[in-house]
What does this fold into?
Amino acid sequence: MKRDIELAVQPPAVARPPRRSHFTPARIGIYLFLISAALFFLVPLYVMLVTSVKPMAEIRLGNIFALPLAPTVEPWRNAWQAACTGLECEGIRGGFWNSVKITVPSVVLSIALGAVNGYALSFWRPRGANLLFAVLMIGAFIPGQVMLYPLVRALAAVELYSSLPGIVIVHIVFGMPMMTLLFRNYYAALPQELFKAARIDGGGFWRIFFALMLPMSTPVIVVALIMQVTNIWNDFLLGLVFAGSDNLPMTVQLNNIINTTTGERLYNVNMAATILTSLVPLALYFFSGRWFVRGIANGAVKG
Amino acid sequence: MVAVRRPGSSLACFSAYLALVPMAAVALGAYVLTILWTARVSVSSSRIFPAGDFVGLGQYERLFRNARWLLSLENLAVYGLLFIAACLVLGFLLAVFIDQKVAGEGMLRTVFLYPYAMSFVATGLVWQWILNPELGVQQVVRHLGFDTFAFDWIVQQDKVLYTIVIATVWQASGLVMALLLSGLRGIDEELWKAARIDGIPKWRVYVSIVLPMLWPSLSTAFMLLFVMVVKLFDAVVAMTQGGPGTASEVPAKFIMDYLFGRANIGLASAASIVLLLTVLAIVAPLYYARGKAAQRGRS
Amino acid sequence: MANVSIRNLQIQLGANKVIDALDLEVDAGEFIVLLGPSGCGKSTLLHSIAGLNDAAGGQIRIGGRDMTYADPKDRGIALVFQSYALYPTMNVERNMSFGLRINGTPKAEIERRVARAAEMLQLGPLLKRKPAELSGGQRQRVAIGRAIVRQADVFLFDEPLSNLDAKLRTELRRELKTLHRQLGATMIYVTHDQVEAMTLADRMAVMKGGVIQQFDTPDAIYRAPENLFVATFLGSPGMNLFEGRIDTRGGLRFVTEHMALDVAHYPFRQPPTDGQRVVLGVRPEDVDVAADGHADGFYRAPVALVEAMGAHRVVWHSFHGTQVAAIVQDDRPGGAFALRGGQISLFDATTTQRL
Amino acid sequence: MANVSIRNLQIQLGANKVIDALDLEVDAGEFIVLLGPSGCGKSTLLHSIAGLNDAAGGQIRIGGRDMTYADPKDRGIALVFQSYALYPTMNVERNMSFGLRINGTPKAEIERRVARAAEMLQLGPLLKRKPAELSGGQRQRVAIGRAIVRQADVFLFDEPLSNLDAKLRTELRRELKTLHRQLGATMIYVTHDQVEAMTLADRMAVMKGGVIQQFDTPDAIYRAPENLFVATFLGSPGMNLFEGRIDTRGGLRFVTEHMALDVAHYPFRQPPTDGQRVVLGVRPEDVDVAADGHADGFYRAPVALVEAMGAHRVVWHSFHGTQVAAIVQDDRPGGAFALRGGQISLFDATTTQRL
Amino acid sequence: VQPPPAAPLRATVSHWWTSGGESAAIRQFADAFTRAGGQWIDQAVAGADQSRASTINRIVGGNAPVAAQFNTSKQFRDIVDQGLLNNVDDVAAQGSWDKVLPQTIIDVIKINGHYYAAPVDIHMPAWFFYSKAAYAKAGIKAEPKSWDEFVAQLDKLKKAGLIPLAFGGQVWQEKILFDAIFALVGGSELYLKIYRDRDIKAVHSPAFRDVLVKFKALRGYTDPGSPGRNWNDATALVVSGRAGVQIMGDWAKGEFTSAGQVAGKDFGCFPGFGAKPPYMVAGDAFVFPKTAKPQIVKAQKLLAAVMTAPGPQAEFSARKGSIPIRPDVDMTKLDLCARMGIEIMQDKSRQLPNAEMLLDPDLNGALQDVLTNYWNRNETPERAQQAFAQAIKDNTW
Ligand SMILES: Nc1ncnc2c1ncn2[C@@H]1O[C@H](COP(=O)(O)OP(=O)(O)OP(=O)(O)O)[C@@H](O)[C@H]1O
Ligand SMILES: Nc1ncnc2c1ncn2[C@@H]1O[C@H](COP(=O)(O)OP(=O)(O)OP(=O)(O)O)[C@@H](O)[C@H]1O
Ligand SMILES: [Mg+2]
Ligand SMILES: [Mg+2]
It folds into this structure.
């Protein structure tokens, strides 16, 4: 009864606050920031896209922001399947499967090794491992080109030079410092107690890694994927030097198209080829979202 | 007698050592060997091929007489500071804003990351155009009626470095965003609740609670960016070729020039060693300090 | 000083409807204890009052204002998390003072309040430590400290003393009571410790499966539980239960196969019917114990187990398949028991509601 | 079945020397309860036995073998973490079965044991949930489940029931005791609940500041605490203490300004000297209460506070500045109290050790 | 496609000709090689530095190409010294290279009496290309006959609101510009004294100072957008008539051609001013990494023979924009500028080796550094002379 009266007395005019509005000033600010940042990021892409559909005559006019007067998809077709890159004139598609053949094992192995290293360094801390890691980190600062000569000699010595395994090994070598660091620091942020619990449960090195740590690593694996797929997919120098002529990645062709020194430069084809080549990493970026899991360690420990 | 280990020994088991064999092989077989080899070459008179002679520190003396090398180091310091700071700040902001459960997250993430996927040979050229006073932004703004507008950093000796900062930040901050995002997402939701109860404004939570918790991710990002700085090459070649003059020369380009075009790997090796020692001088104290902090923090 | 009024609240977590149509009226300045089995929705309710869960329906009013969808910081509440949720990178002092510093409390005042909380919680020497360097109980005290430095209208405590030793718990219980009196704030307090519940609560709410079963003073709930669940849930051990019938022929009696008890003086809410199936409940402390069954009203039953509890012992009698617990202060051995007729409860066997 | 023998153990955490020269001998199959104030090093000790802390010195032998530096998995132990440490990516079932799957237990056997643990812990409907979707008490039960599905020689429980309701706690306490009897395993159990301690422990160790103060049966420790710390730490409320002197003139008496008590029958370990400064301790349940002080041996003292505890009440008398607690079963109002001479303890005032 | 005859001579050929025109050119060699019984396996890598790096690494790794492109310069000197190349003396003897090749090229490829490279083209890196439209707009009638006339024309262009000198401010373009001015203003003698003989005294001479001053004077005729600009973007300025003249290698013709412009009609070219301006000789050559496998040696010799033969030379040059290495080829397909070049080449006194032929890459680079500093900074000619001399001293081992 009393409750009813109270309800009646309550002025109906008091509007109930909306259920979590989506247009608070803060949210508008967020979108404003994101959109303006996105615009800034997109300006070069805009120029690239516009350039890629202009005929060369228009490009020579020098209005880089202008929309094409006579848009053409010829440069794209050209880039994909017709542009000459030396004697062959089949665009960049020629090396596509080679790139895949190189990228997949290199990415998988380099991430796997990085994860294992990071895990061992963070949780098991074997004697001397930190020293090795320090060496690795210093090594990361050696310009890759300086390492070419010794690596060529070393791989030639074990007869892996100019072969698919050879290039994969090289990518692993170059990827290891950053992959190890990435995983090591990620694992350092996980609750140490989980590892202890698994140890009590009798988990050995590998078991804990596969059953416990790996499932908790999805966000960092995505980051590692982003880094390695991009680096390896886009690499051309290492592929050129180590892969052997049968395995040249698509970026060698890309480089041949866009990096000519004394020949004429077809900017429109260059842009199209560049965008085409980057589609694989771009697709990865786009679809990686669901692996950026929120609160991966929620509910694990109290305190 | 059974399974007795000495006090103070670490946790490691046989598997842990086994698992680190590849890392040891890479660290010792690739990096240490390369460093030693490079050191050896740097005290020889090698040109295209490593030579077996010994010329003492001749290459180093030559190196430090070379004004371009000294300028490269100086440029690297200025560039490095600006680039790392800008990338961390922008990457963090992007990560934070994108973490607000915004619509179109996947799209935005891709937009911020795409520069990372593209060869700088092409995007560098585009930046060169955009920044060019006759083609790019300056021209456009002047066409809009602002006749005195000037944005010609890329042709100014004293400003050109900033244009490289802009373009490389554009390229790398997306990656920093992804890295920090992965860290952000790992933070326990309960902490957010606690902060909401405490009435702490969101930005403040990010600054005072989340940022310190992101320390591992930040340090990864820092190292990553630092390596990018030291290896900076593509962007400079694509945008300025080290110019105007030598105003945007950087050590990696110096090394590459001598390694390939100028066919003097002796000097290039000496430069690599100097670069490495410089890096070591910067990183070692950081590493040491962090190790100390970590020791206090855990175990 | 603010009352809390919850009407028809509905909370959904993931796929689970955790709270469904819950009503609760807490007066301003009251000290309410929430009691209930693990997983019944206590934490969820506190979080909802605090504004951390989105209500799927219903209304929450605090201090007379509709706060159903208000931001937590606007509700004037403080909450001690069951899981502590300490800021891992801040030391104890900063953990406690952070909220104050943000809302611009003067520095001297912050220091005063933190010092006071630290003293009360015996955290003095730990102020510079990070949470990772604290023991479980110490962390819990920091979590309490973080809440009580704030001058909230409503304090929500989620099992705040569960990981503390009995002595400290007693001390803190008293301190919280004092604090309550000083601040005059409304407090809602979840605990599994019935001593805590009894000593702290002005009123007590017993929950089960997201529904409040009884909301009354501790004494009333203890003496006159509303249903069988409350009867067995409270007390340690809970009420002894006997299933039987009402016999109205020749007075008003509760009868089972082995037992008969006069319940003529029982304050029935509705007049019972003959043969109605009922459950009789007696608290263990209302069970008398004798060495044998010769005395009047005593039933002979072998002693199954004796639990020494320090201050008292629990003697378990095995009576035709049911275990009957009796709390004994001295060292009587047992062997027969009697029920004190004045202190019984009767429940309908089908609805399980109090008669 | 394995005994645990700890000698001169030293544990350092960060800059803190948490445990210094600790000795503890646990017989095979014994149920030991560790009791001590928050932050005294209980968890640290358990973690050390489990091999999760590196010993700075000393020795830990389990089942007769030196395990000081052995791998946790080789020690034959199971541990319930105070902080649960559940595997966040695994559901309840997999959390519990993880250890079994690792050591290659047959699938059917795993299922059986998990089902049994789930039933005992009332986790049945939650088996497919992830830890983040559980309530605090549910998480704690999963943590228990993870330990008890294993057939360890030594079980280490770190406050395993702290977040459970009284009823469940009582049930689980009994289940654990049963489990203990079935497996015959050694159990070391940390708790702050003295009822738990009393009912479970074969022997009980009371710790303070990393040092074991007394290690004996619960009863012995309760009745005859070794020092003032143990005396006040145990019991709720703890012992009532009175400072005074020994008076040997005319018998053997304990005297204060306001009180005199014959202690001739007290089993002194060493003969007391006249005028020796001592502290007398009496448990609240050994304090008699009367309405006024006319009866023999009763001291008149105003009642300061009455705490209703459900089954009993604590009546606090204010006696010349000291608070004297008495536990009363019935509803006597109080106003005067007397000490039962047979149940007192005497401590040296300077060493705080029992006389 | 015809199935190749039994066991063709397979030859992987590494080069950096990757643009459309260049590809068409190299195809001429490939086709000729195929016709001669070989099988050409193409290894194009854009970027001279990268291509050479890959070649050298493949030699080191034991997987060398059969033939690899280098510039006709001192770039491969070190490889020869290491004994890692096969010579092609047989082919040279057969083709009597000693007689048909210009001496400037022989000086580079004949080392210790052996031919270690097969030259394939001659490039002139310092042509003057001008837009006829722009010249008309500025009211300029004729090509300049002297430095002063040239400067006067630049002034006119400037007055007409055009960019007088189309220029890309990159180190190598600066060097090309400088070498052009050096040869034209300083004269071949001074040029050789400094570049070939490394005569420090000549560096400090007033004549060289004059070269530096005039070089720097050109800076006033470039536009503010020039720093960092690619050469072809500069060419595009000439093509579109926005700029007057560009000093660039003959490869720039390709840009005019692909924009549909014709030499002599839409644009003009001249190799310099003065009575008999020197013709700077640069070019490309293929070297043949050492191997003992007879099949490969055979392939190498066949390649060398094919690439230097008159037929393929004519076809190649027509597409490449360069001029053939020998005078006895069919010139009809060549453009106006190339024909002009061939004519000049007849006069041996006008052949002038370009800097790369005379200088180690190392020293050449060091001089580039000196010049770019001088060009871009506010530096006195004296200081540049000083730095020039120092660089020569430092880089002479
Ligand atoms: N990582 C650490 N570094 C430094 N000191 C620590 C660390 N962890 C714990 N301590 C300290 O060691 C002492 C013992 O901690 P421990 O967790 O063993 O206590 P406890 O007896 O389990 O307490 P509680 O009942 O509160 O859980 C505490 O005083 C604590 O502050
Ligand atoms: N995120 C979630 N998703 C789905 N169900 C959840 C989630 N969190 C909690 N639950 C369920 O909601 C119910 C209520 O949880 P709550 O934490 O409120 O219980 P509680 O009363 O606090 O229990 P305890 O005493 O064990 O802490 C539980 O049964 C739990 O399993
Ligand atoms: Mg809860
Ligand atoms: Mg503990």
Q: What stands out?
A: Residues 96-124 of chain A form the longest helix (29 residues). The domain at 103-249+287-297 of chain A is CATH 1.10.3720.10 (MetI-like fold). Residues 1-18 of chain A have pLDDT under 50 and may be disordered. The radius of gyration of chain A is 27 Å.
